[in-house]
Every structure is written in structure tokens, then in C-alpha cells.
Amino acid sequence: MSVTHPTPRPAVAATTPLSRMTALARAELTLLGRTRGALVAALFVPLVMPVSVRSAAEEMDLAGAGLSTGTLVLPAAIGFSLLFAVYSVLVGVFVVRREELVLKRLRTGELRDAEILAGSSLPAVLTGLVQCLLLTAGCVALLDLPAPSAPHLAVLGLLLGFVMCAALAAATASFTRTGESAQATPMPLLLISMIGSGMFWPLELMPDRVASFCELLPLTPVVTLVRGGWTGDLSAYEALGALATAVAWILVAVFAVRRWFRWEPRR
Questions:
Q1: Residue 2 lies in a domain
Q2: Would you say residue 225 has pLDDT above 50?
Q3: What is the mean pLDDT of the chain?
Q4: By CB atoms within 10 Å of each CB, which of 150, 204, 211, 212 scores lowest?
Q5: Nearest 5°: CA angle at 255, between 250 and 258?
Q6: pTM for the structure as a whole
Q7: How far apart are CA 106 and CA 122, in angstroms?
Q8: HEC profile for 110-177?
Q9: What's the confidence (pLDDT) of residue 12?
Q10: Which domain holds residue 101?
Q11: Structural contact between residues 84 and 42, judged by C-beta atoms closer than 8 angstroms
Q12: What is the Cα Rg of the chain in Å?
């Protein structure tokens, strides 16, 4: 009597959160490369806007505030990259993928909610990181910017900026109905940040009451930490205050995402 052995099943490779997010990021990068509007916002706008800041800097008394053209333009350039290459692009990504039922289908697989959002954010974050490095090198070369006095503050500010902009993008997408409206809903934060976060006009040159209010804006702590990383004149109290403000905005954005983010098309 012959014994029949069961056919062994093929081994299924175990996946990890990192491998799942990496696979999603590769797919998202391909889709991002096919969207011309997102590419323009991500690649060209952050590289052009610092020219306007440099022109405006020539009419300011930066020396009286302990600043230079380089220490004004570089944090502003990094801020533009975070706003346009990360925040604005990701609002459109989250909304369009939701309306196309991509997010809904992803939730039926192994990916967890946090992995979906993080994996979808990676291409924009990497684009912003490359831009920030290029802009830093350009400012150092063209504006005679010295080496940073406290590089750890600049790195901390940059990391907080990436996390904050990704979280705020997901929160903004929660209240955005269509892909077309995703071009308008980021505008309030873009305008408020460019005007009040020390990008075009440093807080040191603002009236005290206005500066105190602007210190609470989302992007202000990022600009403050990056600028303080180069000038080295940021006290421990000021650095901790900027850190607390940034973390508070991240927590608010995460709460909004957990409470109101939609995974299916809005009706």
C-alpha cells in the first residue's frame, strides 16, 4: 500500500512594516512622476522662491537683528521646500488616492493605517530632503554662509518639519472633498507660514506682540531651529520653546487625522 504525501505549499515570504511601506513608496513615486502639477510644485517652486527672499533681504536692516542674507534665505528656502514639496503635494496625494479608492483597497491588505500614510508620504519627504540639501549647498556657496554653529538644532528642525508637514497634509486632506479643491485648501497654511513664520520677514524685525503671536504658527519653530542652528544664538529656553510648539502642532495634526481622516470618497 502506497503512502501519498501531501504536496508542500510554497513558503510565503514574511513581510515587515518597512518592506510594506517601501513597496508602497515605490508605487507612489511612480504615480507622482506622472502628475505634472505636483512635479512643478515639488521641484521648481521651492527653488525659485528663495530668489524673492534674497531681493527682499536687501531692503532690510538684517545686521541690526544679528542676521545676514544667508541666515534669512536658507531657513526660508527650507521652509518653501517643506510647504510646497511636502505639505502641498501630500494633500493632493491623499485626496486623489482616497477618491480613486486606492486607500480603501490598501486597507484590505496587510498594510496598517499608519503604514499607508507613512508609505504614501515617503516620496514627497525624500524629494523635500534632497531639495533641502541642494538649497543648503547653494546658499553656502552663493551667499558665503559659514558652517552651522549648532548643526543638531538645524537637523532637529528639519526632521520636525517633515513629520509636521506630512501630518498636517493628512489633516488637511480630511476636510478636502476633491482633487481639484486640494489645490486650494493648502493655501491658508501656505500664506500664513510665508508671511508670519519668519521666511520673508524675520521675527526679530517684527513688533513684539506680532512676533509673540507668530511664534505659535506651525512652521515658525522649524524656521527658528534651522536659523538658530546656523547663527548659534538660540538659547536653550528658546530652543525648548520651539521644540514644544512643533511637537504640539504634530500632536494636534495626529489627533485630527485619527478623528476625521476619511479612507473612502466623500459624498
A1: no
A2: yes
A3: 87
A4: 212
A5: 125
A6: 0.89
A7: 16
A8: CCCHHHHHHHHHHHHHHHHHHHHHHHHHHHHHHCCCCCCCCHHHHHHHHHHHHHHHHHHHHHHHHCCC
A9: 45
A10: 17-260
A11: yes
A12: 21
